[in-house]
Amino acid sequence: MAESSVVLADNVLRTCRICFDTNNPKDFISPCLCDGGSAYVHRKCLDEWRAVNKKGRAFKYCEVCQFEYVIEPILDDPVIDKRRLLIFRLLVTRDVTLILLLFQAIIVGLTFLLQWADKKNHVIKDIYPTSMSSFGIYYLSSLIIFFAILGLFGLIGACCGWITTDEPCYCGCYQCYFFGAGCQNCNGNNDCNGNGSGGGSVILIIIVILAVIGLAIGIILGGILLSKIMKRHTNKLWLRQETKKYVVKDFQGKRHELKIISTRQSSTGLSIRNPIANNNTKITPSAPVEKAETHF
């Protein structure tokens, strides 16, 4: 009875250093040299942190004491590996689809906005051939405007350095002047021949130019974005599945073993993993990974 009360008291004092919760005492492990309040962590919390940590180092090392986790013996299962790769592909497809749907929603929303704004004068509708449908006219116009806005922001980003660096930078303000090119024979009263129709042509040309630039920038940025999404999901999914494959060993009540392993590493330079794994044990990733971050 006395022994059980001691165990219960010990469980109550244990707190997960990640979620700061005392629940699920059976899930607590002590995987590293940390002591005191940082000695215990839920296995589920640790595995999630190993998977989502941006630096990637937390998959193998404790970020507090810098101890390299000891990995339990590895069991390969090709069926589970294929299932995890399928999940990875579904995650990438989901993100790409959501981005495309977001762009499509913006364009469709702009389509109805232009249709409402052009309801009386039909300025936009008169530019296109009469054979085109009303929705097609405004959708195409919205697409051009969308790429024009994208091109404008792309030019601003290129000038201010937003594309080449993630750090915020100062972009100086410059005065801009609009010259009424195409508006000929203006008199002193600013009365233009042709009822000022040249100004609309200039604006249309500017929009088309920005749309072309936006299309090019959009394709480039889309490729970069898709590459980053694939990289992020590849690393996250791989690490998330590897936490189930490469299980961290629990050293509760075996602190002396941790000290022996730590001493052996500092004296011989061997990995802190299970010494058996320091032999010619080759770990084959079950999904694409970055060797620099996740290679064992």
Automatic annotation (TrEMBL):
Keywords: Membrane, Metal-binding, Transmembrane, Transmembrane helix, Zinc, Zinc-finger. Residues 8-72 form the RING-CH-type domain. The chain crosses the membrane at residues 96-116, 137-164, 203-226. The keyword Transmembrane helix applies. CDD domains: RING_CH-C4HC3_MARCH. InterPro entries: Znf_RING-CH (IPR011016), Znf_RING/FYVE/PHD (IPR013083). GO terms for molecular function: zinc ion binding. This is RING-CH-type domain-containing protein.
